[in-house]
Amino acid sequence: MRQTLRVLYAEDLTVGECFEIGSWHVTADEIVRFARDWDPVPIHVDEEAAALSPFGGLIASGLHTMAIAVRLGYDNFAGDVAIHAGRAIRELRMLKPVRPAMTLTGSIEIIEQRLRDDGRGVISWRNQLRDDEGNPVLQFVAEVLVNCRNR
Amino acid sequence: MRQTLRVLYAEDLTVGECFEIGSWHVTADEIVRFARDWDPVPIHVDEEAAALSPFGGLIASGLHTMAIAVRLGYDNFAGDVAIHAGRAIRELRMLKPVRPAMTLTGSIEIIEQRLRDDGRGVISWRNQLRDDEGNPVLQFVAEVLVNCRNR
């Protein structure tokens, strides 16, 4: 079980706030294992086919990169948030290929805070992963229902 | 390796065409295993905590449900498409909770076909999963660069 000292309620998540969510080292083994289960395109699971493709080698499934962003976000931010439920993902962009041996670093920025009368707030945040040079490789907006402290 | 007889090029994917992509039986074990790796929220990984939550029991991570949609889509449609690269996911909506023992059935509808001068087309399709009663539980739009037959 996750042990946490802080709980972030809807009132706490004000627009413009940023959270660093840490880093993830990508390996060829993880790229292949994830894609075999969920997105078994040759460019994600077959080193030889990938080498002959326009990308010149294995690249991660976009779904895998998104999963890394979700996991980093949970471990370093969302696990502390009083989430009732996720509602939507918007504007997911796969901006650059993710390759073995890259280290991805993530951040989350709050972009919408709409407190409702029913004790919950609609909170949207942008989750972005960057490569070793700081270039964005993937980003998306998550729209989440978060409990208010005062209900 | 996937063996396939058809290849679908950008010219073939006309707006309004629909493809059935088959069914997937969801289990509690798969819900917990996926979420332990990628989205370890108590409601996805802890039966007891989930039973006490407003949802009354385990529900699948939205990311897991999306992964099921991607896998069904690959096995029954996208694996035949001459995809160059995925570009974006838009309008992902988690419409209803996904619970153990549900069988999800998917479909894909082409909603955008924009052939470009460079031998590729921008193709967007809506991937939707429905529950045993036919109610949508998750949908999203995938925007993909697809090779043209004639380049």
Give a short overview.
Two copies of one chain form a homodimer. By secondary structure, the first copy, chain A, is of the alpha+beta class.
Give the N-to-C terminal Cα separation of chain A: 26 Å
What's the total number of strands of chain A? 5
Q: What composes the largest sheet of chain A?
A: 5 strands, antiparallel
CATH-derived architecture of chain A: Roll
Largest binding interface between chains: A-B, 34 and 34 residues
CATH level-3 fold name of chain A: Thiol Ester Dehydrase, Chain A
Class inferred from helices and paired strands of chain A: alpha+beta
What is the chains' assembly state? homodimer
Q: Rg of chain A, please?
A: 17 Å
Give the % helix of chain A.
10-25%
Tally of helical runs of chain A:
4
The pLDDT mean of chain A sits at: 94
| CATH class categorisation of chain A | Alpha Beta
